[in-house]
Amino acid sequence: MALTTETRRTPATLRDAWIALVGLSAVFLFEMLDNSVLNVALPTIGRDLHASTTGLQWVTGVYSVVFGGLMLLFGAVADRIGRRRVMLVGLVLLAAASLATLLVSTPGELIAVRAAMGVAAAMTTPGSIALTFRLFDDDGVRVRAISLISMVGIVGLAVGPLVGGLVLAVAPWQVLLVANAPVAALAFAGILIGVPKDDVAGLHPDPVDAVGGILGTVAIVGALLVPTLFVGAGAAAWQPWAVLALALAAAALFVWRARTARHPLIDLRLVARPLVASGLAYKLATGLALAGMGYLVSLQLQLDYGWPPALAALGMLPQVAVLIGLSPFVERIVKRLGFDRTAWLSAASVVLGLAVYGLLNGAGYVWVAVSLMLVAAGIRVNGVIAGNNVLRGLPENRTSIGAALVDTAQEVAAGAGIAVTGTILAAVFSGSIAAGGWDRQQADEFHLAVTVAALALAAAAGALVLWAFLRGRRSGEAAPAAE
After folding, report:
1. CATH code matching the domain that covers 15-197+265-473, chosen among 3.40.30.10, 1.20.1250.20, 1.50.40.10, 2.40.50.100
2. What whole-number distance in Å separates Cα of residue 211 and Cα of residue 297?
3. How high is the pLDDT of residue 265?
4. Closest CA to 120 of 160, 174, 186, 66
5. pLDDT at site 332
6. Reduced to 3 states, what is the DSSP secondary structure of residue 272?
7. Residue 126: partners with Cβ closer than 8 Å, 6 or more residues away
8. What are the domain boundaries of the chain?
9. CB of 287 within 8 A of CB of 32?
10. In angstroms, rounded to a whole number, what is the distance separating the alpha carbons of residues 47 and 53?
11. What's the predicted TM-score (pTM) here?
């Protein structure tokens, strides 16, 4: 990959850039910690705010919808006006939205706060990888730096449910979201001090395609709203059909815009590159599994099994153990199996974990633990490979949009996973799911909903993995040349 000519002196080692890496790692920590911490608090939030099943779904879902919908636009903006500048503004917004949680008293207010956090995440998260990539000139140091930041995020993802459960045992749920404020402050300080100001020579010279950004956002948001509207309003109502038509029209116009605009938001020829396309498909598959499993298992341990939040958090320890314990072996696995084989085997592990959970979720906690470990193993290995392939397959002055593509795939899949699971639960389960104290019929309904949702997600993830495998095999290139 060609290097951009810059006059600044770049760090030669990770130690030379430790202040910047602390700040960038804090950004990635927020992204991975946020929903994983919140999932374990959903029953508590539902009871405290008297939220409906659909409202509870959107407490987590709106974050993914906004994050996924705006990330490409902010990624394109960052490539043009400055990655560091956009990230610092986003961190200020994140801190303000986190502190606003203290004023929340209704589900609608919490959903609004979560939407603001989604905007902040869209401004900051893609930049964490893009800035890390551009901070170093040496490819080997770049890989180690991105692996380090990824490791911090994985730890946040792994310990999130445990931390959330333990905090809920001694403090109100609001603490879980307010805690984002000091994380944002740490990230702001590290990036302000440790990351050089944006070099004009390294920015993309083309103007931002605002029209394409709006169309993409409308398409993504509309697609994620449709399932909930069909359940809430019914197939006979006009609202879900209108939103579906709007989403399809926006998606078609987005593709048309990308093909015909002089400076499109996304060059579809770049996205179609085998490395990029297969990497994004793997991200979609793992995103579906991660969101769907996190949402369903958290509800099952607390509401089906009747475990308190702290015990439910301990129930996630198999996932924690695999995510952290496997980390030292990821590089060794990739060297032994190669990128392609490691990619599809790890993604297949995710699909298998979903299938095990769907078929055996009612057979006891042991099978829940097995499914958590299978999904965690696949995500830990595949997460490194998929994102790396996307960045390797794109020109260097598209690093922010490339990182945004990776995170958009992850978040859109997460939003879709939550939408599918939440919609199926709302359709099958009678009564308020957050109330607890289910009767036998409700327990059976929950297990049926989990089975249908998990197997549906497994089928979708499996199709994506198969397509990615076939697409990746069509390329004989190790790393496409930059433009």
Report:
1. 1.20.1250.20
2. 39
3. 79
4. 66
5. 73
6. coil
7. 71, 74, 75, 78, 400, 401, 403, 404, 406, 407
8. 15-197+265-473, 209-264
9. no
10. 11
11. 0.71
